[in-house]
Specification:
Methyltransferase, Methionine Synthase (B12-binding Domains), Chain A, domain 1, Multidrug-efflux Transporter Regulator, Chain: A, Domain 2, five-stranded parallel beta sheet, alpha/beta, globular, 14 helices, 3 domains, three-stranded antiparallel beta sheet, Rossmann fold
Length: 307
């Protein structure tokens, strides 16, 4: 009885629900407004609060939508009917290519054909369909890896790579701008240190952070460590994240990273991710290496409670 009562208690803010369901806050609000899928409570400050039951229902609706179901149809189904429908879809779709794989294939075809408008349409459709986490982890990250491999193999030209990078940059910016993060959310400063001009890794981290409920202060590429530290102090950031993919000089990149750690308050966590970081070995005390976006989210969850 206690468990049943707790499942009805409105206690999860919208950023937590977005993280658990893969639905953006904008989609959650639209589904509530247009289809009445759930009726969240409100905190004293007026922010939406969702129950465990709401989160389960939204997760089921999201799975049904990703299988091609219209929310206009599924919104009226009972929890048991939704569970059965999702189970049936999962069984029938288990032998088919995943939606993410299809989006990657379509996106890479647009890259190869040098059609940036088509690529942008595919990526935006993928983001809306898969949610932020699925889009970032299962579409953009592997797509960028494939583009790099194809360029090095001579299968696409520099124009293809540059055009695709520009589209991905715009799409990630759009994804971050679409998130409504509360003013009192913990802050993370994201940048590339001096000598690092490849910013897409940093933009991926910024998008993942924003959709995990953090207020992101994005500084961009090639920023001196002293200025990154100054921005962190100015915004009282709980975390600073840097991306180092292919720096002009590896020794300088390491030196910048150590200088940044020294300039930051001990209370401010420093995360470092990117291909070059993996080859640096032990980074030093107070610097946490980040393996991938899933690892980044786990680190942010640990620090959000202390922020």
């Amino acid at each position: 009885m206690v468990g049943s009562s707790r499942s009805l208690e409105p206690r999860h803010p919208i950023r937590v629900v977005a993280e658990r369901t893969g639905l953006s806050p904008d989609v959650l609000r639209a589904w509530e407004r247009r289809h009445g899928v759930v009726s969240p409570g409100r905190s004293e400050s007026g922010q939406r609060l969702y129950s465990d039951g709401d989160v389960e229902r939204l997760s089921l609706l999201a799975k049904a939508a990703r299988a091609g179901r219209s929310v206009g149809h599924t919104a009226s189904l009972s929890p048991e009917e939704l569970r059965q429908l999702v189970a049936e879809d999962a069984e029938s779709l288990s032998s088919l290519p995943s939606p993410a794989a299809e989006y990657r294939e379509r996106a890479m075809a647009a890259v190869a054909d040098l059609e940036p408008d088509r690529l942008q349409a595919v990526l935006r459709s993928a983001a809306l369909s898969l949610g932020a986490r699925g889009f970032l982890d299962e579409v953009v990250t592997p797509l960028l890896r494939t583009i790099g491999t194809s360029w090095r193999a001579g299968e696409i030209g520099i124009a293809h790579e540059h055009a695709a990078s520009a589209v991905v940059r715009r799409t990630l910016g759009w994804l971050v701008d679409a998130v409504e993060v509360p003013d009192d959310a913990p802050r993370v400063v994201v940048a590339c240190p001096s000598g690092e001009r490849h910013e897409l890794g940093a933009m991926l981290a910024a998008a993942a952070g924003a959709h995990a409920g953090w207020r992101v202060v994005y500084l961009g590429p090639d920023v001196p460590s002293a200025q990154i530290a100054a921005a962190a102090l100015r915004h009282d950031a709980a975390v600073v994240g840097v991306s180092i993919v292919a720096p002009e000089d590896g020794a300088t990149a390491r030196s910048e990273l150590l200088a940044l750690r020294k300039a930051l308050p001990t209370r401010t966590a420093l995360f470092a991710g990117g291909a070059a970081v993996q080859s640096m070995g032990v980074l030093g005390e107070g610097i946490a290496p980040v393996k991938d976006l899933a690892h980044l989210r786990a680190l942010l969850r640990t620090h959000i409670r202390a922020a």
